[in-house]
Design a protein that fits this description.
By secondary structure, the chain is mostly helical. The chain is built from eight helices and no strands. This is DUF1097 domain-containing protein.
Length: 173
């Protein structure tokens, strides 16, 4: 089958399964409602080159970004609180700068992936009223799930693709 159709089929079927996990078996856990983070990580897998490298980059960078985001929220409500309405903007600016600087480390070199993790931690904090510390582990777990779905969807699409056709990774880019 053509690569585009193979990718559409694998992503479509696995998207049903991923969403079902979050509204079904995971709904009574700390991962409830975080399917969107899984989808961000899934896309990040392809954005980061696919394969093992794409999944590794996704997990490392998004986890780093979530950790930096967690610290930014803690600083905004703690040490920077005296800055009033400038506390959050300054904490976010420092976090963004740290993400850029940390890209000098090979495993953290994909800045957008770290930004996705930084942004992802805000959801459980703002929408579910979790503390930054309570939000970190569920975000990281959702990142890992999403990266795994990215990897599996790519492998499945490649298995379904007619020989001599472009790979699922090339089609997704």
């Amino acid at each position: 089958m053509p690569a585009l159709f193979a990718l559409a089929l694998s992503v479509g079927v696995l998207a049903v399964i991923d969403t079902w996990l979050y509204v079904g078996p995971l709904a009574a856990t700390s991962l409830a409602g975080l399917v969107w983070i899984s989808f961000i990580a899934w896309g990040c897998h392809f954005h980061s080159g696919g394969g093992v490298k794409g999944s590794t980059t996704t997990v490392a960078c998004m986890t780093w970004g979530a950790l930096v985001g967690m610290v930014a929220v803690i600083l905004a409500g703690g040490a920077f609180a005296g800055l009033g309405t400038m506390a959050a903007p300054i904490a976010v600016g420092l976090g963004a700068a740290l993400i850029c600087l940390s890209s000098a480390v090979g495993l953290l070199s994909t800045i957008p992936a770290s930004v996705y993790g930084f942004a992802s931690i805000a959801g459980p904090i703002l929408l579910q009223e979790r503390t930054p510390q309570e939000a970190l582990l569920p975000v990281v777990c959702s990142v890992i799930i999403g990266a795994a779905f990215g990897y599996v969807s790519e492998m499945l699409a490649n298995a379904l693709t007619k020989k001599n056709a472009p790979s699922a990774e090339a089609t997704a880019v």
